[in-house]
């Protein structure tokens, strides 16, 4: 493991700098605040905030010097999937490759290389974050299709766990009649929950919340004749 240190006027700015440099969204950064910083005041010199971001590498992986910070302002011209993964591999010192997979109407990619071992740690949070980043890059290019990223079977395992979680919540609702709510999910994950619970008689599902906080509620289905339960 190697920690990369980033600075900024405050902690949020230091994390934003780390996000730009590593090509990962801020929520995906495993970090420690080394110094919260101190704003400059009359007669008192300010101090920058410092955060250490933990970068995992598989055994024997080549260490790489941190990449120079990316310039602020509009996103770079090249935000192709290959360029995004190349930037991540260079920043983290990992060996990664990306290839497109033909699948339906979406944009499906397969990630491989020895560096995937590091990305699959902690329940593959880094893979999920990279998939989100590829989706944002696709939107910047004007692509409206959904992006999916496969890495060593991680998607199948994640989908299976989500289905099990949905059925467990459904069983609890069936047992006591009290509605349950999932954690925030993206549109693909919400659809998996809707489909899984549709197999359970007497229950209904509906999405609630806005934006990234949107989730699924599982509740007893209303009577067919509309009368009170």
Keywords:
229 residues, three-stranded mixed beta sheet, globular, alpha+beta, three-stranded antiparallel beta sheet
N to C succession of SSEs: EHEEHEEHHEHEHEE
Low-confidence stretches: 57-75
Strand order of the largest sheet: 1-3-2
The helix-and-strand class reads: alpha+beta
Taken as a percent bin, the fraction of beta residues is 15-25%
Q: C-alpha Rg, in Å? A: 22 Å
General form = globular
- Let me know the number of strands: 9
The biggest sheet, with number of strands, parallel, antiparallel or mixed sense and barrel status, is: 3 strands, antiparallel
Number of helices: 6
Mean pLDDT: 78
The N- and C-terminal alpha carbons lie at a distance of: 56 Å
**Level of helix content?**
25-40%
Offer a concise description of the structure.
This protein is α+β, with helices and mostly antiparallel strands and 229 residues long.
Describe the 3D structure:
The protein has 229 residues and is an alpha+beta fold. It is built from 6 helices and 9 strands, in the order βαββαββααβαβαββ. The protein has helices at residues 11-22, 81-92, 116-119, 121-140, 154-176, 187-198, and strands at residues 2-8, 31-35, 49-55, 97-101, 107-112, 147-150, 180-181, 203-208, 215-220. The chain has a 3-stranded antiparallel beta sheet with strand order 1-3-2. It is globular and about 70 Å long.
